[in-house]
Amino acid sequence: MKKNKKLTDSTIKSSLSTCPIIEFSIKKSIVDIVVINRIIYTIMKVEIKKIDGLKLTGKDNSGHEIVIDTKKELGGHNSGISPMKLLLLSLGSCTLMDVISLCDKMRVNYEDMIVKVKGERLDKHPKIFKSIEVKYLVYGKDPDESKIKKAIDLSTKKYCSIHAMLGKSTAISSSLEIIKRK
């Protein structure tokens, strides 16, 4: 196994020439890459820092920050999103980005899309999600339901990494509601 190295765009592109089946574009960042048996892995990094009590800030390597916190009765300040709700937000945003992108490529006529995610947690530690429901709301004059269902299916079965990981330990259900506007 090769040691992790920071590579520049040109170094990455030249190393990919030996792997013709992989295509992606790299923007202005430096990426950590690991190559094992000709499979390329991108390494993502985040940093979480204590602010006060259980109030934290999370920062990615691009400099984007969020506040993570919990209820006052648990030692927090209730000033940010809890870690478990952050997980639901991650799932919802991952699949919604996929569905929007796929629907745009399929030229689905819609005005807006919203995903509502609800998770049911176990009462005993570790209080993992027993089940998660993902509800897709699509607004428009006459959106093509079959194409939207296909986009949701592709997201949940192929593209959404968070869905793939959570689905190994939690039952995830999906539903679609189309709200027609005149």
Task: Describe the protein's architecture and organization.
By secondary structure, the protein is α+β, with helices and mostly antiparallel strands. β5 (55-60) and β6 (65-68) form a beta hairpin. It has four helices and nine strands; from the N terminus they run βαβββββαββααβ. A three-stranded antiparallel beta sheet has the order 1-2-3. It has a three-stranded antiparallel beta sheet with strand order 4-5-6, with no helix packed on it. α2 crosses α3 (145-159). 16% of the residues are buried.
From the structure above, extract its key features.
3-stranded antiparallel β-sheet, 9 strands, alpha+beta, 29% helix, 4 helices, N-terminal domain of TfIIb
Category from helices, strands and their pairing: alpha+beta
* Sequence of secondary-structure elements: EHEEEEEHEEHHE
How many beta-strand elements?
A: 9
How many angstroms does the end-to-end distance come to? 59 Å
Q: What is the overall pLDDT average?
A: 87
Oligomer: single chain
What Rg do the Cα atoms give? 20 Å
Globally, the shape reads globular
User: Biggest sheet: strands, sense, closure?
Assistant: 3 strands, antiparallel
Low-pLDDT regions: 20-28
List the domain count as a whole number.
3
SS summary, helix count: 4
CATH architecture group name of the largest domain: 2-Layer Sandwich
CATH domain class name of the largest domain: Alpha Beta
What order do the strands of the largest sheet run in, or round the barrel if closed? 1-2-3
CATH topology of the largest domain: GMP Synthetase, Chain A, domain 3
CATH H-level superfamily title of the largest domain: K homology (KH) domain
